[in-house]
Amino acid sequence: MSIVDHKASVRERVWSELRKVAVPDSRFHFDFGEFIADFEGGEAAVARLTAHRFYQDAKFIFITPDNCLDRLRFQALEDGKTVLMTTYSIKRGFWVLDPRLIAPELRLYASTLDGMERVGQPVSLKDIASMPVVDYMVTGTGAINHEGVRFGKGHGFFDAEWGMLYRLGRISTATPSAAVVHDCQVLDEKLTPDVYDTVADVIFTPTRTIEVRDPHKPTCGILWDRLDPHMFETIPPLQELKAMGL
């Protein structure tokens, strides 16, 4: 079985179990190929994350636009942390949520995808290059094993976000990365990461905090010759990065 077929097989098996505990999306229902779902016990998983040293030490956090991370974005704003995030599928770029610029009564709204674009500030890669380094990278995912190897929806958005921020010098191999998932998404089996696949330092579920030893951190940036042409054509930050010669 090829790596692509293996990934697809793993996703289908995990998604079958996830459907039992997932919160359906208002647009995509249970189409897990289109969104990362919130799930039963999500509050407990996020509480584990916010109690962890990586979060406690971070001031500037990248958080993906996944449904299971809405409450984390809100908590980060409440805790005075600045949040960097992307829109769904990165097509409208990166945005910054600065708690100093957001009224307390708007922070919950700002933590959602719809609110983020109305309350947050859009930023270019050139803007990000002049910002502080990112202290922490947090994502949801489709499936992950105990070694932190993650298979997302299959689009490669988090890997692209990692690659862009790495090329900008805003993250490094020392930057911790976390995944927030339901227990049914954590696998015991071997998963083989590609050279550009990001691996989590720590996994948070409703019942467990799983620390990963020596996680693989990609240093290849964006592999332009392997990038899906459709991603390049529809994601302006990738076009900006290429124009910057990175």
Keyword list:
8-stranded mixed β-sheet, Rossmann fold, alpha/beta, globular, 3-stranded mixed β-sheet, 10 helices, 246 residues
Task: Give a verbal description of the structure.
The chain is an alpha/beta fold and 246 residues long. It has one domain: Rossmann fold (3-Layer(aba) Sandwich). It is built from ten helices and 13 strands.
Topology:
Layout lengths: L2 H16 L3 E2 L14 E2 L2 H10 L1 H5 L2 E4 L6 H9 L3 E5 L7 E4 L9 H4 L2 H7 L1 E3 L1 H5 L6 E4 L3 E3 L4 E2 L5 H11 L9 E4 L5 E2 L14 E3 L4 E3 L17 H6 L1 H8 L3
Parallel strand pairs: 3-4, 3-7, 7-10, 8-11, 10-12
Antiparallel strand pairs: 1-2, 4-5, 5-6, 8-9, 12-13
Shape: globular
Q: How many domains comprise the coordinates?
A: 1
N to C succession of SSEs:
HEEHHEHEEHHEHEEEHEEEEHH
CATH first level: which class?
Alpha Beta
Compute the average pLDDT.
Answer: 92
What share of the residues does DSSP label as strand, in percent? 15-25%
SS summary, helix count: 10
Structural class per helix/strand content? alpha/beta
Summarize the structure.
With 246 residues, the protein is an alpha/beta fold. The chain is 33% helix and 17% strand.
